[in-house]
Amino acid sequence: MKEEKKQEIFTKFYENVNMAPSELEKWLETDKSKSVGQDSGNRESIGHKSGKKIIEIKNTKKSELTNENYEHMKKVNSYIARHTAQKPDGDIEESNWRYSLKNWGHDPLK
Question: What pLDDT score was predicted for residue 92?
Fold first, then answer.
């Protein structure tokens, strides 16, 4: 992956992921977090697994990020873009839509 592409992915990731690692870690422990998302095959949602990877990425120095990290960051950027475009009408504070986004590190109420 070219350096300029990595920089683009990195910048977008840090714009999209607006939850701190400690905040995301706390969120992932909640029943609300575990109640949403598509099962990844082992009774844990894809988004919940992604949240764990996001914490690892955000706790890694930029110079130590791998191509695999950048691929996941790209996936996170795509998910957040698609999901935010599907914002439901009405109050979103206690919505599955918001909970799913938070699993991916993005709190739309921030």
Answer: 96
